[in-house]
Amino acid sequence: MIASPIIQFYTKEFFEELARRLNEDEDWLKWGQDLNVRIVCSAVDIGRAFLIAVKAGEVRTSEVFDEMPAKFKLQGKYENWVKLCKGEAELDKLIRTGRIRLTGSMPDLMGMAGPLNRIVMVARSFPKTF
Q1: Is the pTM of the predicted complex or chain greater than 0.90?
Q2: What is the pLDDT of residues 57-77, one digit of tens each?
Q3: Do the strands 37-43 and 72-76 form a parallel or antiparallel pair, or are they unpaired?
């Protein structure tokens, strides 16, 4: 068996791998078929932002400017994204404590709790360096 290469967290390669894995994930396919959403995730202190675009369940990602239009924007320091991806913190708590700032409707975002949780769980599931 060939070992998966270890990907650097919060890079174009990381988000591409996340999209690939979600698009092949059985649990994601159950929830995502009717999902259409654009989420910009931004690590403000390192100047990197990525769009997670879901259309009819298909996930695509790309590196973008923080100002990219999206239904939801999540902005936080890199260290908080690391905590989320390592499982040391959960997204809703990071938002409630102001460590990640949400632009968009919190009730609408929480209405997508199942798909959001799956994105986080898949992001946590593969090897990466921080």
Answers
A1: yes
A2: 999 999 998 888 899 999 999
A3: parallel
**pLDDT tens for each residue of 77-116:** 999 999 999 999 999 999 999 999 999 999 999 888 889 9
User: How is the chain split into domains, by residue range?
Assistant: 7-119
pLDDT at 29 over 90: no
7-119 has which CATH code?
A: 3.30.1050.10
**Structure tokens given for 118:** 């799956």
CA distance linking residue 97 with residue 93, whole number of Å: 6
For the chain, what is the HEC assignment? CCCCCCEECCCHHHHHHHHHHHHCCHHHHHHHCCCCEEEEEEECCCCEEEEEEEECCEEEEEEECCCCCCCEEEEECHHHHHHHHHCCCCHHHHHHCCCEEEECCHHHHHCCHHHHHHHHHHHHHCCEEC
Residues 6+ apart with CB under 8 A from 98: none
